[in-house]
Write the structure tokens for this entry.
Amino acid sequence: MRATAQAQPNIALIKYWGKRDAERNLPAVGSLSLTLETLWTRMTVEFDRDLEADRLQLNGESANDMLPRISRCLDLVAGADRARAAVTSECNFPIAAGLASSASAFAALVVAASEAAATGSDTLTLARIAGAVSGSAARSLYPGIVLLTAGDKEIRVETVTSDWPLELVVAVTDESAKAVGSGAAMLRSAATSPFYAAWVEQQAQDIVTALDAVRERNFSALAAVAEHNCLKMHSLTWTSRPPVVYWNEVTMSCIQTVRKLQADGVPVFFTIDAGPQLKAVCLPQAVPAVAASLEATPGVRRILQSGLGAGAHRLSPG
Ligand code: 2P0
């Protein structure tokens, strides 16, 4: 009745932003992401009939604000009549600061809970459950470059390839938790941004363009569509009412750093999620130059680096 699982966060190159059905947390658009290797969340789930309520420890401290979503996720995996659970989570990177900590958390949780309860559920079933709690978490069940397709009733998730050694260099500009969560910001964008309908309408074409670039291993084509898609997503938040601006001045400086590297012929592009960190995607030979330039950008607090990694998996019987 106990298991531990690890999942890595994923970074979207073609972004999920907007919900088709907020109740079931179905995304309005498909997305394409990279599952990372060196950043992780490890979750241990222990079901115990003697417990009166679920418990959550996050990096050694009790974390009651996340508990309702954890409990809901456990219900979806193991059934509402399940035993209560003691859940412990460890995470080796900043939480809730636009580094996709909820993706790795819920991906690890569904695998640990499914193993602890011996449900025998397959990966897509677990991905759909994770996605119902946190849309991006569905993608962290799968390795490499991952495609999420938004259907009318349910999502599909699959690995496109694990055989293109893209690297990610993250410039951390601020480690505090974001002011507006991405779920609330998405709903606000859908309700108030004048550009939301165009965003939804163009997403399928951006995904086709990105998939062609991946298939052809065409880095500059992937760079062009990923930066365009990222800037469109942030245009939605900027034009929501009230507006949501996730960037700070260091984020902007990092964009200029990437532009300079590109002008020097370095294979790199940027993406930014619901937080102020800049994520640079590059080819392996460019990692030293990209990491050095971002580290030298004034205001950058630290650099994280990762290649592409595995989908969520069980670590030990626990
Ligand atoms: C993404 N983000 O594709 C986009 C880009 C943030 C920016 O998916 O509301 O925490 O729980 O389904 O999964 C972050 O959103 O949102 C996210 P909910 P989630 O990675």
The helical segments are 67-78, 101-116, 123-133, 182-192, 196-215, 219-238, 249-263, 287-295. The first strand starts at residue 2 and ends at 7. The chain has eight helices and 16 strands.
